[in-house]
Design goal:
672 residues, mainly alpha
Length: 672
């Protein structure tokens, strides 16, 4: 569906003026009236007013408020590595910043919106909020602006007619709208659809197969049948008419696919639709063409290779899915499909498909959460198994609060002991460690070790050793970390490695060597791990091998080698979307630049690193083994270029968008 913008000049002015007087502005109106598009245009036009950026929070995929705050954290790239509540982390992140947050589609989570927005506005004086909702949020001093349908002037010159002309040029470019008859038909359609943008777009999509006169007559007769305002409120009647008419004009298989697609919570690939939606009269082979047809009819939007459905149309599809009696069956199919996907991703972790699997899991995040929600309610064993399999992905990609929430809920269920439960304990243990909750992590790690001994499998023993080793390492007990992982690798390791937990233990053992001052052993083991990783084509373990090579290079004065290895780590971590790893690599690269006398590069890299550490909830650099030399690096960089030049480069990078700053850093020499 096109994203161009027609009309709304008075509404634009009203919202922009309201933002100068109020810190909370809510755009209200019925579904499909254009609230989101207006909010997006306002955000684009006022971006310059907010020094620390404009952030879009999409709430359309939420059906309850349990993950509301975590969704807001994700939207602003706050990947908090602390056990504190997400609300506390958001308040701290916003304090001192001049930010505009846009909350889109608040109607399903209104109570949570009221609580969070009120708390954030109180904690952060520089915060301004725009919300879109079918009803006001209710925060103090909220300015409500009703978004009306587009104007439908009798003379045929209203904004609704302008929008219809523009969409017609895209849907049916050969159709001329210049004659008096066609102008009257367009005007009649716009009046009958009451100027609702989504309804007009759905009508325009029919121009490939119907004439203007046919559309006008069909809409007129159908609208006349909807006179019972107790069934559909009058303000929703025209939109329901357009959606219902579009639905009727779809083929039976298109209607069936529309209904079944409503089970998805986020954008989907063709393969997803084929696997979940096929069945009965709807064959998997027919689905790609049917997806294209639904795009042509503006029921679906296509972005690259993925498809998404607007929430209003998704609601309609879900209503029909329930009417068909397929709601529960499709929910089960959807959950089983994404559980299988997570299982395949875990099995493919130690391969050259690793990066692709991280991207796939990230893109399917909303649907994986929905699948876990279903299993937690309906199938405890499947919930424990699936939650544990997220351990290789969610903690790495910063979803720590969600990871902890799902794992704790799954492990609280009545499920049998065994490798699946042990894996879930491992995943919870590393999540807690990365949040800094070392005491709880140690308790969970010890529980995991007991479970592993009961399982009697090498994989379980290695999982348990890894979570205990990571906790010991992060808590400053490198000898204990070394002992537990070394013992597990000797007793249960294989050559070649049997899977992810073995490589995880190898990483911990290398870091423990280094922390204990055994740099020669650490360097040799890191080179061996890098070679092994390259052979498999994986990046996670390789990135940590590069970390240790760069760190030891710095300690031993090989600045050029340190830069090369730090850049290699940065590339791997960027490929995995691992922001903690990116922050660690930027710390190392800062030191390499400073030691080589490249003060501007050191300042820029340090500023970008600070941006990532703030995103992680650590406003001051978080690499403990570098704390002793960080000040020394800054002095070296300042000496090389002068205080003014250093400060300018540092603050420019600090205030840049994180991804932009990272892109500038990565423009340096490519790793060999």
């Amino acid at each position: 569906m096109t994203t161009s913008f027609v009309g709304r000049e008075s509404e634009l002015d009203a919202v922009k003026k309201a933002l100068t007087r109020h810190r909370s502005v809510t755009l209200t109106g019925g579904g499909g009236v254009g609230k989101s598009r207006l909010a997006l245009r306002v955000a684009e036009e006022v971006r310059g007013r907010y020094a620390d950026g404009v952030w879009w929070v999409d709430l359309s995929h939420l059906y309850d408020d349990r993950l509301f705050t975590a969704t807001v954290c994700d939207a602003v790239d706050l990947l908090d590595h602390n056990p504190r509540a997400p609300v506390e982390a958001l308040c701290e992140w916003l304090t001192g910043r001049q930010v505009l947050l846009v909350f889109d589609c608040c109607e399903r989570v209104l109570p949570a919106c009221l609580l969070l927005v009120s708390e954030l506005l109180a904690a952060a004086p520089g915060l301004t909020v725009i919300a879109t909702s079918r009803q006001p949020i209710g925060v103090r001093d909220e300015q409500r602006i009703e978004v009306a349908p587009l104007s439908t002037d009798e003379d045929g010159n209203g904004d609704a007619v302008r929008l219809f002309h523009e969409r017609c040029a895209s849907a049916a470019p050969a159709l001329s709208l210049d004659s008096p008859d066609t102008a009257e038909a367009v005007s009649a359609i716009c009046r009958r659809l009451e100027g609702i943008p989504l309804a007009l777009e759905l009508a325009c999509a029919r121009l490939r197969e119907n004439s203007l006169t046919e559309i006008a007559e069909r809409l007129g007769s159908r609208l006349d049948t909807l006179v019972d305002d107790t069934v559909w409120p009058r303000r929703h009647r025209a939109l329901r008419t357009a959606i219902g008419w579009s639905h009727e004009l779809c083929s039976p298989l298109e209607r069936l696919l529309w209904a079944r697609l409503s089970v998805f919570r986020g954008p989907l690939e063709t393969a997803d639709a084929r696997s979940v939606c096929a069945g009965g009269p709807l064959s998997a082979d027919a689905i790609p063409r049917l997806l294209e047809r639904l795009v042509d009819q503006s029921v679906l939007q296509q972005v690259g290779t993925r498809y998404r459905m607007l929430d209003t149309l998704c609601e309609y599809g879900a209503m029909w899915l329930a009417e068909l009696g397929e709601e529960h069956a499709l929910t089960r199919l959807h959950a089983a499909y994404f559980a299988t996907m997570v299982g395949e991703a875990e099995a493919g972790w130690l391969s050259d498909r690793q990066v692709a699997w991280y991207a796939r899991i990230s893109a399917s995040h909303a649907d994986i959460r929905a699948a876990l929600d279903h299993f937690i309610e309906a199938d405890p064993d499947a919930a424990v198994e699936m939650a544990g399999r997220t351990g290789l992905f969610w903690p790495c990609c910063g979803h720590l609060h969600e990871s902890r929430d799902y794992l704790e809920r799954a492990l609280a269920l009545d499920s049998p002991k065994g490798p699946s439960r042990t894996r879930a304990l491992w995943a919870l243990g590393i999540t807690l460690t990365l949040q800094g909750d070392h005491r709880t992590a140690l308790r969970i790690g010890e529980e995991c070790a007991v479970a592993a001994r009961q399982d009697g499998t090498p994989q379980s023993e290695l999982f348990a050793a890894h979570t205990l080793g990571l906790t010991h390492l992060m808590a400053g007990r490198p000898q204990a970390a070394y002992d537990v992982c070394d013992h597990a690798l000797i007793a249960h390791g294989t050559s070649p490695p049997s899977g992810a937990p073995q490589l995880c233990c190898m990483v911990i053992r290398i870091f423990a060597h280094s922390a204990l001052g055994r740099l020669a052993e650490a360097y040799e083991a890191a080179i061996a791990l890098r070679r092994l990783s390259v052979r498999y084509g994986e990046h996670w373990a390789r990135s940590y091998a590069f970390h240790q090579l760069a760190f030891i290079d710095l300690v031993q004065g090989r600045a050029h080698d340190a830069e090369r290895h730090a850049r290699a780590m940065l590339t791997s971590k960027h490929n995995l979307n691992d922001n903690l790893g990116i922050a660690l690599a930027l710390d190392l690269l800062t030191g390499a630049n400073a030691m080589q006398g490249n003060g501007i590069a050191a300042a820029r890299t340090s500023g970008t690193g600070n941006t990532f550490w703030r995103m992680l909830g650590h406003p001051n650099h978080g690499t403990p083994e570098l704390s002793a030399v960080r000040d020394e690096w800054e002095l070296q960089a300042r000496k090389a270029v002068g205080d003014n030049a250093y400060d300018k480069a540092f603050h420019n990078a600090l205030n840049d968008d994180a991804e932009l700053g990272l892109a500038l850093v990565m423009q340096g020499p490519l790793p060999s």
